[in-house]
Amino acid sequence: MSVAKSVMMHPTVTTSKRSATIKYSMVAFLGGCLLAVQMFLNGVLAETVPAMKASLFVHIVGLLTALGLCLSQSSSAPPASVIQPPRRLAWWVYSAGAFGGIAIACMSVSVSSPLGTSGAVVFIVLGQILYGACSDAFGLLGAVKRRLTRWDLVQIICLIVGAVMVIV
Amino acid sequence: MNQLLAFAVLAICGGIFLGVNRALLGQLGGKVGASGASAVNHIVGVLFLIPLVLWAAGTSILQLSSATPWYAYLGGIIGALFSALTSFLIPRLGVMKTTVMFISGQMLGSTVIDYLQQHLHSPVRAAFGVALIVTGIILGEYHKFKAPPARSVDHPSA
Fold this sequence. Notes:
By secondary structure, chain A is mostly helical. Chain A has helices at residues 3-9, 13-48, 51-72, 96-111, 116-138, 150-167.
């Protein structure tokens, strides 16, 4: 069935897909707020425990939580993918956690450097945005290619300028 | 100056690796589900951090300080939920949009926390910064909603 035919038969498909995307964006935004809470709690922990050790304990608590989440899922089959069909994953995809660990190490070192927390955060944010732009533009690491619209650019510019205003 | 530059590059790399982590989590989610991806993320993360901590902290690795308040360990729970959320959102929103939303929410959250703790050096400017970020998000989402959907990129033709 062509896209045009499916849209005519289900005229609400595109609208609901767009509103679903906005809902996901709002959920992501709230998730970001939670991330700030996590950073605060990690900071409290790091006051009495050395940074890397604190990170390890946070990870262990997270591991127990994640395993609990897995066990509490009623169906054992993974949900069907939304956009990419399930296929064999290259072995290195499972190394996601290692990159998280490396990221934590880089961030901890740069935060405790002369840059300070604020200075480091600006560049950490910059690195994430750089990767995000390249990932969507070139489809890095198997991600779906997405076109960057001017409104995405508006959001990025507002974010960078606003972040600098908050941090500096 | 060179030292600052080196640390700045290191911080940028940290951000890039964080992006890589998220992209891979997005891929994992399709195969093992969101909570499975979170579990894999944390298992490998723990395995990676143990030798690092042993090298940095020596044999006192398992010693905890009694001065630590109990709620300080809750960050891990948020982390697990966050990893699951990441692997759920990345295939639906893409790495760029997810990252922008995460960082924006983080800016708002950390500004509020800093304000409550009175750590903000210039609360008015920070408030304007947050207002700018939120304005950008609202504008972007509103126009995304009004604009016709992007063609060819994520519509499979049957």
